Structure formats: structure tokens, C-alpha cells
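@channel anyone free to eyeball this complex?
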Amino acid sequence: MAKKNLTREDILHIAKLGNLTLNEKEIELFKKQLSSVIDYINKLQEVNTDKVEPSSQITGLTDVLREDKVDDKRTLTPDQALANTKSKEGSLFKVKAILTE
Amino acid sequence: MDKKYTPIIGMEVHVELKTASKMFCSCKNDPFHASKPNIHTCPVCLGLPGALPVANKKAIEWTIKLGLALGCKINTLSKFDRKHYFYPDLPKGYQISQYDMPFCFGGKVKTSFGDIGITRVHLEEDTGKLIHQKVNGQNVSLIDFNRSGVPLVEIVSEPEIFSSAQAKEYAKKLRQIIRYLDISDADMEKGGMRLEANISLQKKGEKTLPNYKVELKNINSFRYLERGIEYEMKRQAEILDGGETPVQETRGYNAEKDATFTQRIKEEAADYRYFPEPDLPPIKISDEWLKEIKSDLPLSLDSVFKSWKEKHQLNSDLAELLFETASELLWLNRLFEETAKAKLPVDKLVNLLVHKKLKAELFKTEVDKIIELYKKETVISDISDDELKEVIGKVIKNNPNPVADFKKGKTTAVHFMIGQVMREIKRKIDFKRLEKLIISELSK
Amino acid sequence: MNLLSLTIKDASEKLKAGVFSCRELVVECFSNIKKHDKKINAFLTLNEEKAIKKAIEYDGLIKKNKDIFAEKPLLGIPVAFKDLFTTKDLRTTAGSKIIGGYTPPFDATVVKKLVDAGVIIIGKTNQDAWGHGSSGENTDYDATRNPYDLSRVPGGSSSGSGAAVSYGASLVGTGTDTGSSVRLPAGFCNLVGLKPTYGRVSRYGIIAMASSFDTIGHMTRTVYDNAKVLEVTAGVDPYDGTTVPVKVDQYTKTLGQSIKGLKIGLPKEYFVKGLDGKVDSSIKNSLKVLEKLGATVHEVSLPHTDYAMAAYYILVPSEVSSNLSRYDGVRYGLTREVFGAEAKRRIMLGSYTLSSGYYDAYYLKAAKVRTLIKKDFEDAFKTVDVLVVPTSPSLPFKIGEKTNDPLKMYLSDIFLCPVNLAGIPALNVQSGFADGLPVGMQIIGPQFSEQLLYKVAYLFEQETQYYKIRPEFKNG
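replying in thread with the prediction:
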């Protein structure tokens, strides 16, 4: 693969995917740093992986399932659920209005 | 709508399964009856740091059951994937869903307009619920996570629906099958079943699919689905007539205005960055397991209706109004068998039951008792025409005024006479037969 | 009592014999913390009040019932938890500012198991935020320093846990190892550090870095201590579907057994340029010790080693970007601009490698290479029982030395990450010292071979006794 030079647009696009807002300094810094990392990881293209199955997990486990039973051992009270938020209304979490109409 | 265009419609239907516990944790799955917001939550469905999902076996079995009922093939190896997007009701920033290996694929649903292909049936988790309201004069959105993590099945159809009526029939049929399997209440008003239609118009004679697609989302009734699609067809036709292409967007339907409206315009295709969920090992559907699930599958509705037609001359239009679930159907089967054994007509019984003319509570009153009641209702005693004529004569004699009315052309007078005759005989008589006789007697 | 050289084994015997009390032990931990931690920065949160209360309670238990140690094998043992371990009602930050004020409403499974076994929580330790780092410098707080030389890093990401055990603040420091994070601080701080087999110890309640890589380990001064802790933490957890139902061994029971005939593999790809000569000769010396103990040494090959770091730096950031999505400031914590630079870098890198059009070239390709690397190890274990490799190519480096070049920092884990790709266990033991700094050595085995790794390490440790060399706080 050709040497990768991420553009400013690339960086902004990737940041948007990750729901990050960057300042100018970060944009410049990450452009440089991420380009060099991507350059490095492109080295993988050399490896022949025809007929190789991907490993997204490493245990070989399958069918680890739970029975459909209610168990409230882990259930939180609304107070516990809301204990770490800065923004609530009664026993509901509160965010800025999200327009749907 | 003018005949220049054919609508091409594909549907995505979401249904909440009514398992006892949630999809990936053992919290109670009961968002509709929760006494308070955020009382059915735990670290898993609240997306707290460090919490991990473990999949609910029954939800998987029910998804496969639904797939089988829709004639789908079942993937022998399946897995969950993470679908990423940011929204405050999605606690982990990703939804555990299925991407390229859904549990079920390639089925079909029959409608009176033709078959509709089912692309896939997959399992995922529901999000929390957003409530939009004003707090201290400010517009805010409030979030309740009782619904977060409820098992949600998505049924995706091929773009093989070609009218609003067909879309409605398809959605109704789906709900009927889902309720029949007793895996969901599929309550549209509460959001237990949510409809989404992708609509575009194709010029008559063209073969390629249109290059745009409008998503009609968050539809909570069959009627609104039909109206929304019709509105879209008109709206899109006007735009196409003007030489333009409708914008690719998500629209909602406003029932008051009977119109669709823009919800979200998609500038670029969403990039969900799917990848295999590392916290959940893949799922192998062994032959044995599949056999077990199949053995639990009730007879298909189509074959039930067919056998009722053959055995009892029963019309499915009417019979389907009587029941929803497979266990209710078993009960009805027993009732019908017993009725037939008693040499009583089943179709008439169904008619009475549908119109609530028997004092019986379906699925609760004992079968014997219902048949007894039915007998009383149906006995059109072997009363002869002569016997009847005698009574009619008596009634005519005692009611000179209505008779005169009839002769003046007031036909409703006959109904009064029927009532009088019935009261006199104190038995159930076929209405039509009696009416005919009275008219002929009066006309003498 | 001298906490700098105390082990769990000593402490348990002395607590049992009444030589000192739980309370005295815990008070001693906090007095060391007060003495050193201003300079070392090993802790982010201390649990002093509750710890002392608990210690007094346990002293009462011991007085009443000497057999309580059978029921609670780690009774009274001070533990410092890495701040990725969720602790009920005790602040848990992941080394980050974004959840700097988060107090969990539940305990991680491992925390619960250890607490049930009688440990006393001393506090929560500093770390590279979210586990992203090899030096401890990526913490959103002040960087932890190496007790052997305060101008150097203690290794990361479990930097605080390593330093804390090393300088006598605790007898156990827990850690997570996604690519290096237990073994590197153990290697740099002269400790025994276990990266267990993936799926051996529950991840439930451990703040996730890369879910298919994260393993839950711990650092102690000796092999015995380490084995003792794993006996408590290992096992299937119904809350973690990736824990594997393989029997948990009595790891301490086989310590001392001979390793005669053990076949040790030396992967030739690991002994190449870039390896510090002092590290190289230390490992060579250690191999001689192992040979003296009856082992034989064989060259083996792990042919895809050169691609391991590239695969690692695709798969791990992909999972990181996903796992960090939940931090949106709605249910807990602050908004996403508060993420530190390294977290942002990894979120962006992972978003890129998973994004539409790049998934096949990056994520999928790397997942295939992962299969090849796993197979490399499986093939090697057909001919040898364990592998021995250096933990780090270099000695503990200076604070600030690599912070401006993320790629250079990433590559310092070159001997560590392949093990995580393969999901196999590895144990860091001390190979010796060079220039007064600890040199770590990894013993790597096939899946679920922890018992064998402990057996090998134990005999080696008995022979060398490097664990007795305690830090002198150079350049303090």
C-alpha cells in the first residue's frame, strides 16, 4: 500500500465517526501521528491470508447462553441507577432536547 | 394515484419479544407495566463500565421459531455483532445486533396480492425510551432505560410490496403469525411492534430499482401505514413529475394532518462500523437443537385454516377473528371437534361466537357448556310450516294496526310480527324462514 | 514487620500465629503510602478508613476461629486494585478524568471473589488511562514512577499496582493485561506478574479495553503468592460468557516439583536487533539456570511475529473505539472532549479500521493474521513445553523518553502483544538486574497451562531469589 497521508478531512471524518470534537492543535497532531501508525499497520497487506479464517474471539467457545429467568440480584434502584449522572429529572436521565419533529 | 409509477416498498418490522427477562441480562422484561422509570435496570442494560452481556436462550429460540414460521432457512452458525451509533437512548454507544449471520434468512409471507420475500429475521436489543417534554420552560429529552435491552426481533422484507394495501396486509399477517406463536404481544400502540416502510417509485416499464429511498418510520398502526404510504406515493410522484428526485430521508407520519414529514435527512450513508461482538461467543444451531425448536412449532396458520375449511366449511376471515395464539387455537380445535361430533354446524357456532351471541367466555368456559348453550340457540325446533302458520294467523288477528301498516307498504312492520311470533312459540326459529312465511301470510 | 520484603505466605503465617494483627499490617501499608506515594503516584484513591475497619473486624474473626484461614484463604491480605476494577462504593476512574468522579454501584466478579476470600482493599491504583500505554505516562493524573529509579517509568499500563507492591504499599496489585499491562510493570518493578489464559479469569466488572484481548491478572513478590491469588480469582463466571469451563488447578500444590526434562523453546524471531544487549545476556544467564534445573533449550520459530504488532494495533483500537463509545456523559462521567490524547488517538484509529470501505483491509485482515499468530504458537507447543522470551527489549526507560512518538511507545510491547493475540498465558519472573534495574523474563505456555508456568517459575525463583532485592528509591 502506498504511504498513507491522512488529510484534514480524513481526520475530521474519523473524529465524527468516533463522536469526538477536536481542536486545531489536535487535528494537526493526529494527522501526523495516525498517518505514521497507519503506515505501519499497512505492513499486514504483505501477509497471505487466503483460506485463513478470521479470529474475532480466541476461546473457541460457542453457545454460552443463559436461561430466561428474572434475577434481581444485580437490579439497581432508580437512585443507584441515577447516582452518577449530573443531569436528571425525577427518576429519569435528562439530556438536551432531541428533535424528532 | 396516476398510473405512471409503481411503488416499490420494502418493510422492516421490529417486534419486542415477551421473554421473562431481558436479552443480555436477567432484568425483568416488562417496560409497559413498570411502576416507575428506571426500575428494571442493572449494570448491563444501563451500559455501566465493565458490565458484560450474556444472551437469553429463549429469545434465540423464539427468533428461530418465527423464522421457521415464515419459511426461512436457519443459519447453522450465527453470531452477534456490534452496531455503532451515538444516541442518548443507546447506553453503550452500540447496539448488539446481527450483521452478516442472522439466525434466519430467505422466507416468505403470502398475501392476497402475491408472495413477499423475507430477506432475514435477526435478533437485537431494544434501546431506552426517550420522552420529550418541557422542564422549567426548557425543551428536554428524558430517558427511561426500563426498555433498554429488551429482546427485539427485526423482520426485513424484500422490496416486493407494490401497494399500500399490500403493505397493510403484510404487516397484519406478520402480527397474526407473531401472536399465534405467542412470542410477543406485538402491541403497536405501546411500541411493542414498530413498522418501517422504505418507499420509492419506479416509472412504469422500467426495470431497475429507483436510485433513492424514503424511509417512513415509527408507524404505530396499520391504518397509518396505509395512509402514510399513500401520501408518500402522491408526494414522490409530484416531485418526479417535476423532473426531480425525492430526497433520501427518514420521514414520520402525522395522523392529524394525514401527511408525512421530514425527520432526518441523510447527508451520507450511516457508517455503523459493525464487527463481531467479542463478549458473546458465536451460536451453533445444531440439528438436535433445531429439531427441538421445530417440535415446539405449531401447525402453520395456513394449514389450520385449510383444514377448518375442509372439515367444517369454515371461512378463515371469520375464524381468525376468534383467536390469536397457538394454545387458543388448540382449544378451538377441541371445541370444533366436539361441535361436529354433536352434529351441529361449526360455521354457525363461529358466527355466534364472533358476534358474541353466546354467553360464553372463549378459552375459559368449558367446551361442553358452550356446546350446550349453542344447542339451545340452534334448536329451530322441528316445527312445521302448518304449525307456524297457525301461530302467525293468531298474531295477525291480534295486531290489526301493524298489519294495516304493512299493507300500506311499511315493511318494517314485519319485524314486529316476527317478534310477536317468536314470543308466542318461545323457541328459536330461523329468522329468514319466519320472515318469508309471515310475508306470504300477510300478502294473502 | 518489613513490608518491603513481606510475602502473602509470611503474612498469613504471622497473622495466624498472632505475630502481628491485620490492623497492624494495614496501618503499615498506609504508613508506607504516606512516606512514598507523593513521589511515586501509585494511588488515585485510598480506602484507609474502611480498610482499617475491615482489618479490626478480621482480627476479631481470627481471635474467635483460627480455622478461618481455610474458609478465607487470603484473610487480611492487603490488595491494591488497578482502577479498571469496578469497586462498589469506591471511586473507579480507569485512570481517566472523564469518569474521574464515578462511583460504581457494583463489584467486579474478581473483586467480589477476593473480598470474599478475605483481602483488604488498600486503594485504587494509577494507570495509563483505560489501559492504553506501556509506561504509566498516559494517565490523566500524575505519572507513576519506578521505585527502583524515580526518574524512570514503572511500566504500564498497570503502573500503580506494580509500583505499589514494589514499594510496600500492598502485597498484591491487580492488573489487566491486554497487550503488556501486567507483565511489563512486573518486569520493570521486580515482581511476579501473571497474564492468565484469556477466559481463565472473569472480566465482569473490569472496565473493558479490548474485549477479546483483556485478561485479568495480578502482581506479587513471589511465585507462591501469585499462584495463591489465582486459586481465588480463576474460574467460570455466569456473568462473563467468555470464561471457559476448564477446571481450576490448585496452583500452589505443585510448586517445588521437578522440571527435569522440560523443553524450553527460544523463538528466534525474538532475539534480534533492537534487543538491548544487557537484557539479552540476562535472559541467556537465566536459561543456564533453567538448564541446571533439568530443562533443555531449543530454538523454535514463530514465523508471523513480525506482523503481530500491526495486527494488534488494528484489532485492539477497533475494540477500544467500540468500548469507549459508552462514555457520553449521560449516565455517568463527563462529555467526550475530556478524553485524553491517547484515548482519542485509539478511538480514531479504531473508528478508521472498522469504517466502511476499510473493514476488510484492516479489521478482517488483522483477524486473519491473528489466526496465523495463534497457530504459530500452537505449532511451537507441539515441540516444546514453554517458551522463554524477554519481557521488554529494553530496561525501564526514562519518564518522557517515548511520549512524543506513539508508534515508538507501541513497539516497546513487541515481545508481549503476540501472547494476547493468541490468548495464551504468560508469567513474568525476574531474570535479574542490569545497571541496578530489574530485567523481566516471560515464561509462555499453551492455553490453561498456568500450573506448569508456576512450577517452572517457582524453581527458578528459589534458585535465583531476585525477589529479595527491594527498591532503594534511586533519584528520589
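from a first look: Strands of chain A lie at 65-66, 88-89, 92-96.
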